[in-house]
């Protein structure tokens, strides 16, 4: 577990109300770590807390960890728990955001139909909001990242796998059964088109996701042909490509080609003018540059702009903070209506 | 030119007001033909008119043809021109529907930034509406076809090329520069991934569009290996596949595979539960059946339902009629507001 105090940003993210008397928790539940941030009503992060989830994927255990983290954050900021007005979190899987139910995560955590919003509200006694983590990060990019000021864009998160958060007319497009943007199974030239078992990595993911990149590296790796280990991570492989290593460059090129084809296809469907690359692997500058190059070769009418996230891993926390503030606002409005109705009755 | 009188439908399409005292014109401008329908205020088609555009693609000439057609329809129905309250048309290219400007059609017609709505309003003296033909057909499917009662679906028009009309939350998604759904350039396994010159058939179109299907047929055709001519149309090739011809079946299979991959990709992005196949080639039963088969092999979480249009070529005319009625309603509402304002002043 780690706890850190933040220097306050000079100006709060756009679109967030400036009321600093209330506080919220933004969270990001991942397959390897749980991260929390305590923010004031202006959306400014006061302090952060994180812990490993590698061995504790169970929802009740994650909730207990969140309790510990929130307590640590309140202690660090010398605030009583009553000053918290909402909590919001991203979850690593398909999520019904209306009900706050995590429908399915990858096999690593194994959640199925977990009513996590209800669990958070029972634990903390404040309104909560739960959405898919890529969608939450897209909100972060929209409110405080490079998508600020746009109304239509696509956030592409590349970590172990790949997912898209789609914003149309300033709103997340989540889809009828909440799976919009689950592009790991996309088929492009170069991917296998063999049917994929449910729960297994999709065709695009096998080339563009972190595990797929490592797999490409291992299958091409020969002793004495490169200075980098056979067990290198995707980031190390891309770093090695920047140093001119031929094998690393061929892996980078293949990854960038598949990614650019996916972006091309999504842009054709949606006519989105902007794509923001995020996630631990997506933000690697070598990947952004190589992908832009392949996109430029094509030059279609609706050529999208491709940028690398400036928020990095903070996109999800900032998105969660914004969603928590919105949840708190909604609760206030509901209370005002109830009060007005009982006064009139 | 051909003119025909309709038997009235027993019940008007859903969502259309039942005022039968007004009349509208719905039109479909295509690369090979111009079709018009006169409908009453309940959306019921009274009579139709059509003519060839094969040698008269110029916008001013098309407008003159529409004038002739509308006059013929009014004469046939014994109605004075004053009883027309609006006209709407689909245009075969990227269209700014807000302004009614046809930005670009294929090289066959060669329109560039044609203010066709303005031209229609000047010619007929009634409010007009112009949108991309595939979008207009999608509205037809939503209001009177197999998409009735849904709020999210994708209409796929396959004729010479392929295009998608995307309906999200009951509204067309047209995209920031009006190119959403221009999926002819989509890249899937089996398509070439070489960059495509602007104006040339896209990668997907080269396999799935009518011309692409004929091209596949010609490149595999050998004398005495099939009873069908080397110059067969796409529909004839698919008919031949149903008769068990091996070459025709391999063309059908390749087309269906590419189409199913495109549907798979679009469904991943949008999570649309329903796809409606339309257009002269899209409605061929052999294509629908073969494509459903490939989709079933995959069985992803968000498996969409694929149906063949029951409206066929009428989807565009019915969509145009609905859009004309909506345009007339908007004009009435605007007039009512103006009258109220001048009464108050």
In short:
The structure is a homodimer of 345-residue chains. Chain A is α/β, with parallel strands linked by helices. Chain A is built from 9 helices and 14 strands.
Topology of this protein?
The structure is a homodimer of 345-residue chains.
Chain A: E1 2-5, E2 23-29, E3 33-40, E4 45-52, H1 59-76, E5 84-91, E6 93-96, E7 101-105, E8 112-114, H2 116-124, E9 128-132, H3 133-144, E10 153-158, E11 162-168, E12 171-172, H4 205-208, H5 210-220, H6 234-242, H7 246-270, E13 274-278, H8 285-298, E14 305-308, H9 314-344
Parallel strand pairs in A: 2-5, 5-9, 10-13, 13-14
Antiparallel strand pairs in A: 1-4, 2-3, 3-4, 6-7, 7-8, 10-11, 11-12
Write up this protein.
The structure is a homodimer of 345-residue chains. Chain A has 345 residues and is an alpha/beta fold. Helix content of chain A is 39%, strand content 22%. Chain A contains 9 helices and 14 strands. A 6-stranded mixed sheet of chain A has the order 1-4-3-2-5-9. The longest helix of chain A has 31 residues. Chain A is globular and about 75 Å long. Chain A starts with a strand and ends with a helix. The model of chain A has no long low-confidence stretch (mean pLDDT 91). At the A-B interface, strand 11 and helix 7 of A face strand 11 and helix 7 of B.
